[in-house]
Design brief:
By secondary structure, the protein is of the alpha/beta class. Helix content is 42%, strand content 19%. The chain has 14 helices and eleven strands.
Length: 347
């Protein structure tokens, strides 16, 4: 049976799912943690798959496509070199994504490797929401704009909710909220993204587990002057030491909630900040969209935590009258398999 193998390569982890090409039925899956060598991890996955001669394509999640790659793309040496240019924009993700691709090219050189991008679903954002109010010549030369992320997840849950509502995605207005280690929210009008919280990098937008989201950029100028911090120190703070971790010392939501129950004031403050910022984005997107058919939660926190969902909805119920609320388990790997089947393999 012809198959599609999908890899989601993280910095210290690798997840794979194997799908039947025609049915997209899940055949097998596994998740490897604490890896130090992507090639060894991919080789281990291929040993588990066994019938590798049935694999017709390998799909890869790539977080940042830099605005150039907005469709599933077959990866060759030229494409791989171009993708390396975007690693600085998503340092937590892209280098690991590309390591998985390189391993597959080396181990299975005759199989088509296809990159699917988290930024692609957001390519429909209009200019008024896409550009930053910075010097035009600078932003155009360096291609500084709002790319958005978690696109595979936002796309998948949008399609799933359309099925649940028995409507075409193109007829729906949705607000989709992905809450996990990273967090983002998107406004979807008639099936197309018109705004999203993450921007040029995955640092912008909502408060996250170790990323602070929106901040006054003047704070960074202040730190360089007052504390003599260089860009590496600032990068470390923004990516790894902010958000929930920065406020209450942990980047694990379960630990945050435990601390809240124990009466920890910093944990309560962190949770209140987290919820409030999500509520602000929901409010702004309700206005931008005019009519909203559904509010959709996903991601490890958004889908699994009824408590977090209830806290977010509690104070804005009046604004959500007539809006259906869903919690949908995302499946980025299945979304990748769908894209490969529909766009590249002609099935």
């Amino acid at each position: 049976m012809s198959q599609i193998l999908v890899l989601n390569s993280g910095s210290t982890s690798l997840k794979y799912k194997l799908f039947g090409l025609n049915s997209l039925e899940l055949i097998q899956e596994n998740y490897f943690e604490h890896i130090t060598d992507h090639k060894k991890a991919v080789r281990k996955a291929l040993r588990e798959v066994k019938n590798i001669e049935e694999i017709k394509a390998i799909g890869h999640r790539v977080v940042h496509g830099g605005g150039k790659f907005i469709k599933p793309t077959v990866v060759n040496k030229k494409v791989l070199k171009e993708l390396e240019n975007f690693s600085d924009l998503a340092p937590l993700h892209n280098p690991a994504n590309l390591a998985g691709i390189r391993a597959c090219i080396e181990l299975l050189p005759r199989v088509k490797n296809v990159a699917c991008f988290d930024t692609a679903f957001h390519a429909t954002i209009p200019d008024k929401a896409n550009f930053y109010a910075l010097p035009w010549r600078l932003t155009r030369k360096l291609k500084i704009e709002r790319f958005g992320f978690h696109g595979l997840s936002h796309n998948f849950v949008s399609e799933e909710v359309a099925k649940k509502l028995g409507k075409k995605l193109g007829d729906l207005n949705l607000i989709t909220i992905h809450l996990g280690g990273g967090a983002s929210i998107s406004a979807i009008k008639k099936g197309k993204v018109i705004d999203t919280s993450m921007g040029f990098t995955p640092l912008e937008g909502l408060m996250m587990m170790s990323r602070g989201g929106n901040i006054d950029p003047g704070i960074l100028i202040y730190l360089t002057r007052k504390k003599k911090w260089d860009f590496k120190k600032i990068d470390q703070m923004l990516n790894y030491e902010s958000g929930m971790k920065g406020i209450c010392g942990t980047s694990n939501m379960k630990e945050v909630l435990t601390k809240v129950r124990q009466g920890n004031k910093k944990a309560k403050l962190a949770l209140d900040m987290y919820v409030y910022r999500i509520q602000k984005y929901i409010g702004s997107y309700l206005v931008v969209l005019s009519r909203v058919d559904a509010l959709v939660f996903t991601g490890a926190i958004g889908f699994r935590s009824r408590l977090i969902r209830s806290k977010i909805i509690k104070d804005i119920k009046n604004s959500l009258k007539g809006v259906k609320v869903f919690a949908v388990k995302t499946d980025e790997e299945l979304m990748i398999a769908r894209e490969i089947k529909n766009r590249l393999l002609g099935n």
